[in-house]
Design a protein that fits this description.
Elements lengths: L3 E6 L2 H4 L12 E2 L2 E2 H4 L2 H6 L1 H14 L7 H8 L5 E6 L5 H4 L5 E3 L2 E8 L8 E2 L18 E5 L9 H9 L3 E5 L19 E5 L14 E4 L3 H12 L3
Parallel strand pairs: 1-4, 1-9, 4-5, 9-10, 10-11
Antiparallel strand pairs: 2-3, 6-7, 6-8
Helix pairs in contact: 5-8
Bound molecules: 2'-O-acetyl adenosine-5-diphosphoribose.
2'-O-acetyl adenosine-5-diphosphoribose binds next to helix 1.
Amino acid sequence: MRKKIVFLTGAGVSAESGVPTFRDSGGLWEGYNVEDVASIEGWYRNPKLMLDFYTDRRRAMMSVEPNAAHRAIAKLEEKYDVVVVTQNVDDLHERGGSTNVIHLHGELAKVCSSRDKETCIKVLPYEIPLKMGDKADDGSQLRPYIVWFGEAVPNIQRALEEVASADIFVVVGTSMQVQPAASLIFASRAEQNYIIDPNTPREVGRLGVNIRVIQKKATEGMAELLEILMQP
Ligand code: OAD
């Protein structure tokens, strides 16, 4: 029987690919106040600003590549059942080779209806800008398929079930400041728990005693973990 490893990843896993994290930049995200560009109120207030902002984020995806941490996570599929629960909206886990990725906060590659977010979902190539007047099949304005503050997190139940059934649970590169994602750590019943982050989050103590902290960047920490987990 193959063991199951569940990863919970955040912005830190993509940092070495050149995607900026959220809270390492003094509260600003690419120069914007997070509430203005990442909340449903922001969308109601100024949809054009949101569309332009996400068009820029989508375009930025074309010049980034998965790093060694994404690839190491994918390599573990040779020996384990691996599920990646990610808060990231980039597709670097998939491009790094992971085949089972649950996106908690949506995906930059996709757009959806602004009337009913879980409908009319489709992939829009990164080079195509998202503009006012672009319509979903239900006639509403197309919007980014992103979970904004103030919105439900549809994949949280699936993620909870995966974490609760993990043999090995690994947290990589998240400050665990955003709920409900952060509470996933309390669902772990795994025999081995690891945290990889150069700045260990304070929530770490609550995971229990059988936790190993690898206080390193994602690429270095994942190289270390790969050695441990791929031992014959
Ligand atoms: P944060 O920016 O809050 O946290 C990034 C974490 O990555 C911190 O703990 C850093 O110490 C760590 N870090 C930085 N560089 C790293 C590296 N090279 N290797 C490993 N770790 C590194 O990002 P998240 O926790 O992902 O939500 O943020 C959670 C959510 O807040 C995001 O998904 C987003 C944001 O608002 C939405 O947009 C809904």
